[in-house]
Design a protein that fits this description.
Shape: globular
Number of domains: 2
Strand content: 5-15%
CATH class of the largest domain: Alpha Beta
Order of helices and strands: HEHEHEEHEHHHH
CATH architecture of the largest domain: 3-Layer(aba) Sandwich
CATH topology of the largest domain: Rossmann fold
Radius of gyration: 19 Å
Largest sheet: 5 strands, mixed
Distance between the termini: 17 Å
Structural class: alpha/beta
CATH superfamily of the largest domain: NAD(P)-binding Rossmann-like Domain
Helix content: 25-40%
């Protein structure tokens, strides 16, 4: 990005704690921590401020849409839009199709993200959707291998098949707490999703920089 374009982007970014600033927004994406009561409180406030045609979405990586949007007055304009971490460099965005969302909302979001250079994926409304079911469990299983290999060794093997290893990506996205949250949620489907206990005691992993970055 050129310095001129970067300056133009920065001029259009407004940082605020005043919800009234979003009054004229056509698309609102919430990215608070994975707490259903907190998200519902945010959406209750947002829905009172924005226009009736504004699309309202959540960046949750794991919570089904019906649990988050169950109190919305116009659920047809709501959706999950989960940006795969780290969002600033990863292309995939899951657009979750759920029963009360309108087809118009789903179609627009798919078009919008494709237009902005992302790779939108329409996903069913299941716990952890698609990306986290793959990535988080890949990371969790990798953590269970740490009694046999180091984080760097595991990453090097993974790099033979994908862009970067699990521990390198977790460092980029500060993702250890996310693994705990999402795998705990998936345990509704079975104890085999139990998050590896090491995630509660490690802040960053000692691994190498991916040669492809």
């Amino acid at each position: 990005m050129s310095p001129e374009k970067a300056a133009a982007v920065r001029q259009n970014i407004v940082y605020t704690t005043d919800y009234q600033q979003i009054k004229n927004c056509q698309l609102v994406i919430e990215a608070a921590t994975e707490s259903i009561p907190l998200k519902q409180k945010i959406f209750e406030t947002v829905e009172k401020i924005v226009d009736e045609n504004t699309i309202i979405t959540s960046n949750t990586s794991s919570i089904p849409a019906d649990r988050i949007f169950c109190h919305m007055k116009k659920p047809e304009r709501t959706a999950i839009t989960h940006f795969f971490a780290p969002a600033w460099r990863s292309l995939p965005v899951e657009v979750i199709a759920w029963e009360k969302e309108s087809q118009e909302t789903l179609d627009y979001l798919f078009w919008f993200f494709a237009r902005t250079g992302k790779a939108p994926i329409i996903t069913d409304n299941a716990i952890c959707f698609v990306l986290d079911r793959i990535f988080d469990n890949w990371c969790n299983e990798s953590a269970y291998l740490l009694d046999r290999a180091t984080a760097s060794q595991i990453d090097k093997v993974a790099e033979e098949f994908v862009f970067a290893g699990p521990f390198f990506v977790l460092n980029l996205a500060h993702g250890n707490p996310i693994i705990i949250e999402t795998n705990s949620l998936q345990m509704e489907e079975g104890a085999h999703y139990l998050p590896a206990s090491i995630f509660t005691s490690v802040d960053r992993w000692l691994t190498h920089k991916s040669r492809r970055t």
